[in-house]
Amino acid sequence: MSDVLTLLDAAHAAVSADPASETARLRFYERLADGELFLLLEREAVGEKLDPKVFDLESGPVVLVFDREERLAEFSGGIAPWAALPGRVIAGLLKGQGIGLGVNLGVAPSAMLLPPEAMDWLAETLEGEPDEAVASPGEFFAPSAPGALIAALDGKLARAGGLAGAAFLAGVRWQDGRRGHLLAFTGAAEGAQAALARAVREALVFSGIEAGELDVAFLSPDDKSLAALARVALRFDLPEPEAPAVLRPVAPGSDPDKPPRLR
Question: pLDDT higher for 159 or 119?
């Protein structure tokens, strides 16, 4: 069994330490959905056609995923066909199929079996779309959002590099008298608004807050309300996207750290 602990291992350990904690369970499912998983296949993929290897267990059929390629190799005892997919995609593929998910079976502390009902729930949870509305803010004030929501937003936005420059969380009183919280993005990339709104919705859902609401807005840098918002808001700076490496030809022997090979 591998000694390298992963984020999924940590999320599973939190559930094991407090099985009654709904927050811990939700964070585990969020980690499962957001992470890249290696799905064991029956045979090599042909184009986009995948044929997952199905195991018939006493509890019912399951497909197997691993959160590290090395763990899949350890389980299979060598080379085996696989496909690397986000957990959310695998949940969508299993929805309604009556097939469960085996996670890191026999090779990690996060080994567990998830029944088909769990995969259906996860897929349906991820499919939801935020509601659209038009409203005008009347006043901003310091946020009083629960720590669980702030932590969930911080995690989601840390994985949204390049989609926006920053986000501001503040309390808000709308002109119709309604009060709540607003997360306003600035510098959103073209076409990224829908993805950012879904990420915020998922952060709210997986934070475990009952009947929680959070409004999302997209502001231009010269928006008149931005200065008032920034004075009281909690700011999240989204990471810059990594620049692609620039590959240049190097003459043999010109790099002192890589001498030319002798033949």
Answer: 119
For the segment 173-187, what is each residue's pLDDT rounded down to a tens digit? 988 888 989 999 999
CB 13, CB 49: distance < 8 Å: no
The predicted-structure confidence for 90-116, as pLDDT tens digits, reads as follows: 999 999 999 999 999 999 999 999 999
Cα–Cα dist 51/40, whole Å: 9
d(CA 151, CA 149): 5
Question: Which residue ranges does the chain devote to CATH 3.30.300?
Answer: 137-237
Burial 205-240 (b: 16+ CB within 10 A, else e): bbbbbeebebbbbbbeeeeeebeebeebbeebebee
The predicted model scores a pTM of 0.76
Strand ranges inside the chain, DSSP E? 36-40, 54-57, 60-66, 82-86, 100-103, 112-114, 137-141, 166-174, 179-186, 215-219, 234-237
**Joined tokens for residue 137:** 């803010």
Nearest of 190, 204, 194, 189 to residue 23 by alpha carbon: 204
Q: Are 43 and 51 in contact (CB under 8 A)?
A: yes
* Calpha distance 88→261 (Å, rounded): 46
Measure the CA–CA gap between 53 and 42, rounded to whole angstroms: 4
Q: Is 100 helix (H, G, I), strand (E, B) or coil?
A: strand
Whether 252 has a pLDDT exceeding 60, the answer reads no
Amino acid at 168: F
CB atoms under 10 Å from CB of 260, counted, come to 10
Fold of 137-237: GMP Synthetase; Chain A, domain 3 (3.30.300)
